[in-house]
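FAQ

Q: What does a record look like?
A: Structure on top, sequence underneath. For example:
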């Protein structure tokens, strides 16, 4: 049985007059718990199609309700609007944060339709830092860039880097982007990487990322299109230093608020002593 550190004072008060040996045992657990850390983590990756379903009906409130009810700790969102006319000139990430009670971050790929279009993150944990790394994009023969949104979050007294991306439709560009993504998240912090990668599992770009950060959905459940999905293009990758004890991976086929299905993964973050 794992005894949570924060519960130990309450347990010792309850045991004080019952069994002194149990009090000693509890104290030893408290000492040992200082040398390692474990935390269950639920992550969602979701391309929200600018807060609209495939019929272009606005569904942001349903998306917010789904995320809140899911109990997710970290959410990587792609195709997010900020103040765009097509989605009612709403600040979608602020609204989702208000609906879910989570911290949030947003960075734009580019200006669009009176506002901005980009990536978002929701986090139950404090966001200590956020950054907008840029990855290569080629549009109409012109080299431009897209966002890669990464946040440093505190989980207890530990930190991880949580990142989300949306890769290109053509493989030549995706290979360039995959290498850039890996470069942007390299460092001392353990990484959880999410996104719409627009690539099938056996492609070179996905295998490149998978070799460093294993994909959590080993069953390769399809996520696109939302109705009778046939393509696996949305992924959650986790640093092998912390992504152990995978318990649940799910594609909730009943969530029809976008043209993609969301991908959920719940696993155990474990830092060694």
């Amino acid at each position: 049985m794992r005894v949570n550190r924060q519960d130990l004072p309450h347990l010792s008060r309850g045991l004080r007059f019952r069994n002194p040996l149990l009090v000693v045992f509890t104290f030893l657990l408290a000492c040992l718990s200082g040398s390692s850390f474990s935390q269950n983590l639920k992550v969602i990756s979701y391309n929200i199609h600018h807060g609209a379903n495939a019929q272009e009906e606005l569904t942001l409130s349903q998306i917010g309700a789904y995320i809140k009810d899911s109990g997710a700790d970290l959410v990587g969102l792609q195709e997010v609007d900020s103040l765009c006319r097509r989605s009612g000139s709403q600040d979608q990430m602020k609204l989702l944060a208000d609906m879910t009670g989570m911290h949030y971050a947003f960075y734009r790929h580019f200006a669009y339709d009176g506002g901005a279009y980009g990536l978002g993150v929701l986090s139950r944990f404090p966001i200590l830092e956020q950054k907008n790394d840029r990855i290569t994009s080629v549009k109409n023969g012109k080299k431009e860039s897209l966002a890669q949104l990464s946040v440093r979050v505190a989980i207890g007294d530990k930190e991880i880097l949580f990142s989300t991306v949306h890769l290109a439709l053509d493989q030549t560009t995706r290979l360039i982007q995959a290498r850039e993504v890996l470069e942007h998240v390299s460092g001392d912090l353990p990484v959880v990487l999410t996104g719409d990668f627009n690539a099938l599992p056996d492609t070179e770009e996905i295998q490149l990322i998978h070799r460093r950060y294993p994909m959590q959905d080993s069953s390769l459940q399809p996520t696109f299109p939302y109705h009778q999905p046939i393509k696996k293009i949305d992924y959650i990758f986790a640093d092998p230093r912390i992504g152990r004890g995978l318990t649940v991976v799910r594609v909730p086929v009943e969530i029809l608020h976008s043209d993609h299905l969301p991908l959920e993964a719940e696993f155990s973050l474990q830092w060694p002593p």
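Q: Is there anything notable about this one?
A: The helical segments are 8-15, 20-33, 60-70, 92-100, 171-185, 204-212.
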